[in-house]
Amino acid sequence: MTILVIAEHDNTKLHNSTRNVITAACQLSQDIHVLVAGNNCAAVVTSAQQLFNIKLVLVAYHPAYAHALAENFAKLIKTLAPDYTYIMAPATTFGKNILPRAAALLDVEQISDVTQILSANTFVRPIYAGNALATVQNLCAKQLLTIRTTAFAACELTNTSCEIKTITNICDFKLSEFVSLEKNITGKLPELTTARIVVAGGRGFQNQENFKLLEQLAIVLNAAIGASRAAVDAGFAPNDCQVGQTGKIVAPELYVAIGISGAIQHVAGMKDSKVIVAINIDPEAAIFKIADYGIVGDLFTIVPELIQALTRV
Amino acid sequence: MKCLVAVKQVIDPYVTISINADNSAVATNNVKLAMNPFDEIALEEAVRQKEAGKITEIVAVSIGTNASQETLRQALAHGADAAILVVTEQIFSPLNIAKILAALATQQQTNLVIMGKQAIDDDCNQTGQMLAGLLAWPQATFVSKLIMDHASNTALVTREIDGGLETLRVSLPAVITTDLRLNQPRYLSLPKVMQAKNKPLSIINLSELNLNLQTQISTLQVNYPPQRKAGIKINSVTELLDKLKHEARVLT
Description:
- The complex is a heterodimer of chains A (313) and B (252).
- Chain A is α/β, with parallel strands linked by helices and 313 residues long.
- Chain A is 24% helix and 28% strand.
- The longest helix of chain A is centred in the first third of the chain and has 14 residues, at 93-106.
- In chain B, the strands form two sheets. Chain B has a nine-stranded mixed β-sheet with strand order 9-8-7-10-6-1-4-5-11, with helices on both faces. A two-stranded antiparallel ribbon of chain B has the order 2-3.
- At the A-B interface, α3, α4, β5, β7 and β8 of A face α3, α4, β7, β8 and β9 of B.
């Protein structure tokens, strides 16, 4: 039973999500290969070779693979599929985009967002925005899975370096073409989905100008900035900051929800955080029902105090 | 250009769900139903493209029980020109739904399919990608901006990906799946709802499509997730930092 894990990367750096998938894969088999498809991505290959428990890294270099275009990736996965029982990818926008297409080409089902592996073909996955957990059994001969990265720890990197096999098969359909990428402007702050600490703001901030207070707190804590859908819709924060059912799913060590009421939609994206702190002026706010520590009060008093106290330390 | 919009009837997003006593599924009896919100965005986008003269006809399609007729009537009121319901009592996996949609896309000779990026019930986020794969069309998923260009027979799409906003040019025919910020669906006026009653809604029996659909996924159980307990209230910032350092040990 060999597993193929599809590596997520930007041609420069291996994305941490790949390491979460390896941890999940190790629960199914010890025979794991990783596919790195990209262009000029030697550093990514080197990192992949050091992933814990990996037997082989398949490398496909070509401009057609530079931007993870689904048409080319799915076909490449299809051509490699005969050698594998499991094909796994992170349930990030990268994995969600390519793996279902590969499944259709292989005429097999895919299980999305796996949070628990119960047996070789039985998995737990959240449905209804995490308000229910479904246990599903997949009888397909080939199992395609996307892994909820926050449900599995990142695997370690080792000092050893496994073998490489170069794939010469080039799938270049030219059905779609990369035009541009406008990267998230997080500056020096950590990336939202992998940050150890997330500070998130909601409608309580009242306007975009006030939201800068959250940025100051993020800087002193070296935290990523998150936002509720209400804050994003009101234009306080950019779209890619949105945490929730339809935004990003995060599970940091510490999540500080400020001026966020705690709508189901938002909670679905952060309830697996290890420690939750809530700061809200409304003592009845739903967020307090899931927070480990809550402060009832005006954020415009509390947040500056918090920044000052942290700066002093 | 004819555009197919796939719409799914789901439990209303504002309803708190409950699970059947035997843990077999989420309860759907006597629960308020609605059009999947992402599909509503897909429909709104098709209507806007039609208003801009970029497409000529919108056909809304749904797969489900007769109750889905209501969702299709809503689609017609929203601006679809015609609707098709593929009637079935069975709940299908995304792969099977994609196979049914592929058959309809071929039958309807469309070269654009717009649909939500995921349904808010099973949250699979697969059907559009699978449909594009089956048809061998390009796909543009999680789209927040769509510009159709007839001269080059392409579409310029902006996708909401984890790293930011990615822009692609896809050739047509194509499958587009919609993200939240593509548009804000309009409210339906009473006259439109009345007019929709006279628009064509055809019903096809699934067996008429002659598809070989296999059921390979089964849901063994549905459970509530473990609930987080409310913690404690704290009175000062000093106390909070003390707890985070010495009790929770998440700050040093």
